[in-house]
Specification:
Largest sheet: 6 strands, parallel
Number of strands: 12
Mean pLDDT: 91
Helix content: 25-40%
Shape: globular
Strand order of the largest sheet: 2-1-3-4-5-6
Order of helices and strands: HEHHEHHEHEHEEHEHHEEEHEHEHH
Distance between the termini: 60 Å
Radius of gyration: 21 Å
Number of domains: 2
Length: 406
């Protein structure tokens, strides 16, 4: 007899299956058609993606830097790449302002106790592994003509209310990058000063709507399958068909925890790749580690070459790396209990132990049709939930903000 927990999970699985089988194809066709129409009409909004010079993530370059070079300049993650491949978007790096609404970054020091404030400020003077700081490319918020954009998206609030109120024709939106930060919880209920929309980062199917009117489900990893092929069009090393993919790309925390014996077992399935933290370089001048990012040419090529991406063990994660891997063409496997968006793991891709992982890999290798079906499912989910649906919901939310003003 099933336990109550097993019965509840069974109902969730059935609901998810019906949503994928009947609703997703219909909804995605409508979304695709509407996006194509917006492109054809030249109606895609002009967007600025903005970050402060004390932000230890995303790009470090001047406005107008070519897309491939901009992505290579990232300090850590690839970020919402589809904003640049599918919208008319520019990246703007600004100097940190002292207005209270622009101090979300301080919560990482004060409330989350990641590092002292000085650690974040030090990125203004020197980026680890580079001979320059972000201030070299940053501009004052006073010197940007924000009227050139229809929508401005801040990674944490980067443009203060005293500036945003001067441009009532612009829609102002923001991420709180760290979902554990107090400002994230506050923003689910009410907007920070000077802002119109809060980008929540979630991308799961919704069976009950619960967002406030100002909240948009819009992933930080705004990706679709093939997004990096669009971004790095001249990089032939990324063009690897599904039939030619081989091996496994391991989430870096998992790679660190593997024994030599376990690694040898995985090598039966092809090359084993990772951004394993033991390979992190160290900047003696800055006194900081220099992380290996997935936007480095060799690592991005490995992601596109790998047949599988695996996350097991270690801390729970949001799923950014997994979505990025699926966008690169890999099939993601692992422990769903370590993932916020566990629906991406079907039963054949779920493994809570190393022995189960090996069993799943052996079965997928032995049954090409099963592998193809698992691959198609994950790509369909990422394309819809991490790109097409949030793209249209952002466009619609901007239109509603403008309608309220008029």
């Amino acid at each position: 007899m099933l336990t109550r927990a097993e019965s509840v999970q069974g109902l969730k699985d059935l609901r998810q299956h019906l949503w994928e089988r009947w609703w997703l194809p219909h909804a995605d066709t409508l979304a695709r058609t509407r996006l194509e129409k917006l492109h054809a009409q030249g109606a895609m909004p002009r967007i600025a993606l903005v970050k402060q010079d004390c932000n230890e993530d995303l790009y470090c370059c001047t406005r107008g830097t070519p897309l491939a070079e901009m992505l290579r300049s990232t300090l850590l993650r690839s970020g919402p790449v589809a904003l640049f491949t599918q919208f008319r978007t520019q990246f703007v790096l600004v100097r940190a302002e002292e207005d209270p609404e622009c101090a979300i970054w301080k919560e990482k020091a004060r409330d989350l106790r990641w590092c002292p404030e000085e650690w974040f400020r030090s990125f203004q003077d020197r980026v680890p592994g580079r001979d320059y700081g972000q201030t070299e490319f940053a501009v004052s918020v006073e010197d940007v003509d924000w009227s050139a954009f229809d929508l401005v998206i801040s990674v944490d609030v980067a443009v203060p209310a005293r500036i945003t109120r001067r441009f009532p024709q612009v829609v102002w939106a923001y991420y709180v990058r760290e979902v554990k930060a107090p400002s994230y919880r506050v923003s689910l209920q009410t907007l920070l000063p000077g802002q119109d929309l809060f980008l929540k980062q979630n991308f799961a199917p919704r069976f009950r709507r619960g967002n406030a009117a100002h909240v948009v489900d819009f992933p930080y990893h705004f990706h679709y399958h093939g997004v990096f092929l669009d971004a790095f069009q001249e990089d032939a090393s990324l063009w690897c068909g599904d039939a030619d993919k081989a091996g496994i790309f391991l989430e870096h925390h998992m790679r660190a925890a593997l024994s030599d014996k376990e690694l040898t077992v995985l090598e039966r399935f092809g090359p084993v790749y990772s951004t394993h933290h033991a390979a992190v370089r160290h900047d003696e001048v800055a006194g900081k580690a220099v992380p290996v990012t997935t936007m480095e040419p060799e690592v991005l090529a490995q992601l596109h070459a790998a047949r599988y991406f695996v996350k097991m063990g270690g801390r729970n994660v949001f799923g950014t790396a997994m979505v990025e891997a699926i966008a690169c063409g890999a099939v993601a496997l692992g422990d769903p209990h370590r993932l916020s968006h566990r629906f991406l793991y079907s039963r054949v891709l779920s493994a809570e132990s190393f022995a189960a992982l090996v069993d799943r890999l052996e079965r997928l290798e032995a049954e090409p049709t099963l592998l193809a079906a698992a691959r198609a499912r994950q790509r369909a989910l990422v394309d819809h939930l991490c790109f097409r649906r949030p793209a249209l919901e952002l466009v619609d939310a901007c239109q509603k903000v403008r309608a309220r003003r008029h």
